[in-house]
Amino acid sequence: MIPRLGVNIDHVATIRNARGSQYPDPVRAAQMAVAAGADGITAHLREDRRHISDDDITRLRQEITVPLNLEIAATDEMLEIALAAKPHAACIVPEKREERTTEGGLDAAGLHNHLSHFVRELSQNGSRVSLFIEPDLRQIDAALSLGAPVVELHTGAYAESFFANDISRTEAILDDLRQAAAYGAKCGLEIHAGHGLTFDTVQPIAAILQVKELNIGHFLISEAIFSGLQSTVQKMKQLIETASTGDEQ
After folding, report:
1. Of the residues 71, 134, 213, 223, which is catalytic?
2. Is the pTM of this model over 0.90?
3. Is 71 a catalytic site residue?
4. CATH superfamily ID and name for 4-245
5. What is the per-residue pLDDT across 144-172, written as a single tens digit (0 to 9) for each?
6. Is 195 an annotated catalytic residue?
7. 112 catalytic per annotation
8. Which of 6, 33, 170, 177 lies most in the core, judged by the most C-beta atoms within 10 Å?
9. If you average pLDDT over residues 225-246, what whole number do you get?
10. Among 134, 154, 195, 223, the one annotated catalytic
11. Domain boundaries, given as residue ranges, for the chain
12. pLDDT in tens, 19-38
């Protein structure tokens, strides 16, 4: 099965907010991504609202025709918003105000007691809960214990090592990702992956048999500056399909 592509439109909002204007509109970007073949839209509503806003989430729920994956921190404020928005999926992520972007996976094992309430409430409200974690078997076991049906494996370290040309580390992290994906799927979890993926790095991840969805954002929005959003999304879809089917490029 070819992995689904979820397009994260956060950084369209980043550009908008840099000028405090009404454009570019992330909802318009989401609609364009869908027209180009995106299977879902991902948006991270941060505590400091540095990019996506509450109104963006409301409009996305009203105006897009594919599933919305809402990324949130495990806070009471975000839980209340997610319960009201009722997105198709709610991905719980770690969040620090001082970070530029998400720096690693959620410590589902260490935060088990804190997270249980969020997983339960979101699930009962109809959202499919995902935990954004490192490719670590202990974290997968914690996700199972919490009752989350989905985990998203953090691919940031893999991407960083690839661009640092650290071949041995890249292969080691890829092996960790493959083992975690196989173990999680065997335990009954649906496996997603994302963070830092580009045209150059996506295919080894898309080729992992158990990965059912990839969430990619910053690179797609960046590349769209040069190539346009539609062609950029279409090329990413093609690379994912090629990697998952084993067809030669």
Report:
1. 71
2. yes
3. yes
4. Aldolase class I (3.20.20.70)
5. 999 999 999 999 999 999 999 999 999 99
6. yes
7. no
8. 33
9. 94
10. 195
11. 4-245
12. 999 999 999 999 999 999 99
